[in-house]
Write a structure and sequence with these properties.
- This protein has 215 residues and is α+β, with helices and mostly antiparallel strands.
- It has a single domain, classed as Leucyl/phenylalanyl-tRNA-protein transferase, C-terminal domain (Aminopeptidase, 3-Layer(aba) Sandwich).
- Helix content is 38%, strand content 25%.
- It has a seven-stranded mixed sheet with strand order 5-6-7-8-9-4-10, with helices on both faces. Strands 1-3-2 form a three-stranded antiparallel sheet.
- It is globular and about 45 Å long.
Length: 215
Amino acid sequence: MRDDPDHLTPDLLLMAYTSGVFPMSEGRNDPEIFWVDPRQRGIIPLGGFHISRSLGRKIRQEPFRITFDADFTGVVDGCADRPETWINAPIRDLYLALHKRGVAHSVEVWEGDQLVGGIYGVALAGAFFGESMFSRRTDASKIALAYLIARLQNAGFVLFDTQFLTDHLKTLGGREIPRADYRRRLSDALVVKADFCAAPEPTAQDVRQLSIQTS
């Protein structure tokens, strides 16, 4: 179902998330937005994130500086900076508005002063809806994801929704579940009291511990 972006507000977007649907567009130059409700939903179980040996070594080396909510706009624009993207101007504006409300969050990966990777999404109660991630250095987005999952665990989240399952996410422990199963998990997560902002930012040691827990 397509929607007029002029009628789509941040409040309506949040209501859509609680109903299990999310917005996309056909491309950056297509002003229209449509709602997506996949029959098979991608998730990463928060206790089942897979860190390969090579990624574990990379995390231990700490080649990048990691921040949270330091450059949300830069992360969204980094995710949209590809030949084909579903992030058009109305969608970008909506997530920037959610970030100002403290509902949408980002993880940034820095090499010096250069933003080289990141991930962003929406936090509601005990559910986190991962929207998109990007990488301009090897493993930068994987490391951002590892830090995000460690933060979600610290904060008490119980559902990490990746929307779709890609081959990339499958290697990290992602899997698909039927729509009905997803809706049950979402319903349970929406009554959980989790607070992304109140949780301590994970350290490299926290992420290394995550590697031990999920190896």
